[in-house]
Structures are given as structure tokens and as C-alpha cells.
Amino acid sequence: MGNVKFSALPSASVLGQNDIFCVTQGGVSKQSPISNLWEPTPITDAAYTILTTDVLVYTKGAFTAPRTWNLPSAAAYGAGRILRVVDVAGTLTATNTLTLARAGSDTINGATSAVLSTARQAYLLVNDGISLWTIIATAISAPAAANSFQSVTVSAAGNTNSNATSSDHHVRITVSAGAAAYTATYCCLRAGRSAGDSISVHFDYAASTNQRMQVFDDTTAGTKLLDFQNDGTATIAWANFTFDGTAWYLEAAYFIA
């Protein structure tokens, strides 16, 4: 048959989600609704096995525990296709994580799994159609207030237990003299934090021996990072705390009497 020339084809209307498109793959003609090109799959606080037909899988609702989503095999999913995994709910933490687990002997960036542990984190993955998955892009939404300031006053008769919020990076704690000896605590919470986050804390101690100030990792049941009993002089102190993705640690502390 000679060359066929198509002309004066009718103008196409806007395609809808239920319209059909046709393709040829491996010599076989196939058809599917347009919606299959970009059909989102919501998962609510549960384990899930990602299907070969999934292109965008996202969290719908808060995680109450760590969850695992199993990838399809690279061979079954197909070379070059992009799989998107997104924490749309924005509730992933270092505790309530989302683990992407390989199928069989596949690898993900050379490892057996990949973990999302930050609110609104996202991965874009492609594979070679054989056994290798590669994360080609990672997205992390910045906190709403990336450098917020918190001011706290502690005393024997007032606030003696305080916490850093997920967005606090600079804190000033006024440590009042108090009418009697007391211990005040400040906790660097892990929830909502990412590896590399830091908190700079400025302490103003009144001239007294009553105050004892303690700083803890996450809760008062966690590791004690700083413990200072004032010696009776007005003292200024600074301390820097850094989060490594799992826990807080004291990076540096300075005292000026």
C-alpha cells in the first residue's frame, strides 16, 4: 500500500477523564481511559502494595505508626516510568515514617528500602525495567515558620516545664530567682523535625542559687542534654542543640557570669 495522506481531520474537543486512548506496546494494541495516565491513589494510615498501574500514591490522613509501602518489581512496572510517592497529609515524622520496600532482590538507590520521615516529603522514582529503582527527585516542604522565636519565663511559682514547638529555632528562657529552690525543664521535641534542624537557646539567670535548669531530648524521660544549677550570680548562657534525624544532642554551650 502506498503512502496515505490524512488531511482535513476534524478538530478534537477537550479530552475527558473517561475518553479512551490507544497505544501499541510490543506489537500489541491496547487501550485505556485517559484517567489511567494520572490516577492518584490515596492511602489512609495503612500498609500498601503499590500496583503496576499506580503512578501517584499519596498519604490521606495522619499516620499513627510507621507504615510500609511495597514497590512493584522494576521488571513489572516498566523501564522509564515515573512513580510518585507524596506525603500529602503532611504528618510523617521521625517516629511515624513511611518506608518504601523493594520487591524481591530489586534495589532502591542501591539499598533495600527508602524512608520518608518528614512532613510533606515526596520521592520521584524511575527504574531500569530489570531490578534497579532510582530516586531522581526528593521534595521536602519547609516549615511554615522556619526561624520562629519563642520566649519563656520560668520560676518556682510559674511555668517550670516547657517544650520547643516544631518550628522553633531560637529560644530565650528567663530563669527567675524564685522564692525557693526549684527545677525547670525544657524539652526539644522530635515531632515535625528534620535531620540538621537546630535550636539556639539563650538563658538569662537571675542572681540566685534557687534555679536549676535542665534540657531534655524530646521528653523529660529522654536523654538529659544540659543541667545547670546557678551559683548565685546573674548569669547568661547559650546552648546550641542539633537534631540528627533520630534524637537531639548538645552541640555547644557557653556561660558568662
Explain briefly what this protein structure is.
This protein has 257 residues and is mainly beta. The protein has one helix at residues 74-77, and strands spanning 20-25, 28-33, 40-43, 48-49, 56-59, 67-70, 83-86, 98-101, 107-108, 113-116, 122-127, 132-139, 148-154, 161-164, 168-175, 182-188, 198-205, 211-217, 224-229, 235-243, 248-256. It is built from one helix and 21 strands.
Any overview of this molecule?
The protein is mainly β. It folds into 2 domains: 20-139, Jelly Rolls (Sandwich); 148-256. The protein contains 1 helix and 21 strands. The chain has one helix at 74-77; strands at 20-25, 28-33, 40-43, 48-49, 56-59, 67-70, 83-86, 98-101, 107-108, 113-116, 122-127, 132-139, 148-154, 161-164, 168-175, 182-188, 198-205, 211-217, 224-229, 235-243, 248-256. Strands 3-5-7-11-12-9 form a 6-stranded mixed beta sheet. The chain has a 5-stranded mixed beta sheet with strand order 13-15-17-20-21, with no helix packed on it. A 4-stranded mixed beta sheet has the order 4-6-8-10, with no helix packed on it. The longest helix has 4 residues, at 74-77. It is elongated.
Q: In one word, what is the shape?
A: elongated
Which CATH architecture of the largest domain is right?
Answer: Sandwich
Biggest β-sheet description:
6 strands, mixed
Q: What is the CATH T-level topology of the largest domain?
A: Jelly Rolls
Query: How are the strands of the largest sheet arranged?
Result: 3-5-7-11-12-9
Portion of residues in helices?
A: under 10%
Number of strands: 21
The mean pLDDT is 85
Estimated structural class: mainly beta
Uncertain runs: none
Q: Indicate the radius of gyration in whole angstroms.
A: 27 Å
Share of residues in strands: over 45%
Q: How many domains in all?
A: 2
Kindly provide the name of the CATH class of the largest domain. Answer: Mainly Beta
